[in-house]
Amino acid sequence: MKKFLNIILICLFNFLQIHGAASEVCPAKSLEEISVEKCNQLLFNAISEGDVRSVENFLSLPATILEKFINLTKEDCTPLVLACAFDKREIIEKLLMTEAIDVNARVCSGLTALMVAAYGSNIEAVRLLLADRRQDVTAVEACGDSALTFAVVGSHNAEIVRLLLADHRMNSDCINHKKVGPMLDGATMFMGAAWNGDDQIIKEFVADGRADLNITDEFHGDTALMKAAYKGRLAVVRTLLAAGGVDIDLRDREGKTALKMAEEEGHADVAQLLRQAER
User: What is the SS3 assignment for 136-151?
Assistant: First the structure.
């Protein structure tokens, strides 16, 4: 059986090579390894070039052959991750129809295809991935960032945030997770959006209703309102106050309120809005 699989792989390689899809590959120790490496290389080439027909040829192979290379990594990438990175929607759809594909395969510090699509603002790719029942929506990479994190503080894409929040597999723990690292540094994604002034994303969180509006970060004791006030994000402050349930009297670890921060930073319009809310 093993010999038979090798013959099939070699025949496939030769067929695609004749049709112009082949490229140089690294030498390997055995016939089977060479065959798999060549097929893996050809599949990557077809995806990056958007060659749907060649991808279909690969995916039409028997599962016992396909599973040998469909989830292999090349330069910290898998076929599905590569398709998401290049936003090859038709190819993504065809890959997801393959039972052998691992939709949650991790590459490069634990990134998944969903994280890559979210960071790249590839909305249709995100839609396709979320439609797959096998998708782990709340998965995190090595630094603790999820696809939602990448959408909020990576691509700042409100539509992708909406899609992720609307998915039935999304949970409150993921939404209110405090991230310690380069992207959020002890704050939640909601706080990150407030800091960046992404008002539409704030509205998505508010509409969803699961984000803790008064949660504080791990280092300064700031709330989302404080961060928005400090940065002078007038639209965000207005949205937060209109949401209801935001405690404007909370103080950070230095004893400062959101109003005090706005005043100290010279954001007169924000300060005025907060004074009006106190009445």
Answer: CCCCECCCCCEHHHHH
Q: What angle is formed at CA 188 by the lines to CA 144 and CA 211, rounded to 5 degrees? A: 120
Which distant-in-sequence residues (6+ apart) come within 8 Å of 222 by Cβ? 187, 191, 216, 230, 252
Strand ranges, E, within the chain = none
Using 50 as the pLDDT threshold, list the residues of the chain that sit under it.
Answer: 1-34
User: H or E element: which one contains 164?
Assistant: helix 158-166
**Which residues make Cβ contacts (< 8 Å) with residue 128, sequence separation at least 6?**
89, 92, 93, 96
Q: What are phi and psi of 146, to 5 degrees?
A: -105, 175
**Helix pair 52-59, 89-96: axis angle to 10 deg:** 10
Angstrom distance (rounded) from CA 267 to CA 203:
22
* 118 closest CA partner among 149, 75, 86: 149
- Rounded distance, CA 105 to CA 112, Å? 6
Q: What is the three-class DSSP state of 15?
A: helix
**First CA to last CA across the chain, in angstroms?**
80
Note the pLDDT tens digit of each residue in 121-175.
999 999 999 999 999 999 999 888 999 999 998 999 999 999 999 999 999 999 9
- The pLDDT value given to residue 142: 87
Sequential DSSP letters for 85-108: HTT-HHHHHHHHT-TT--TT--BT
- What values do phi and psi take at 54, rounded to 5? -65, -40
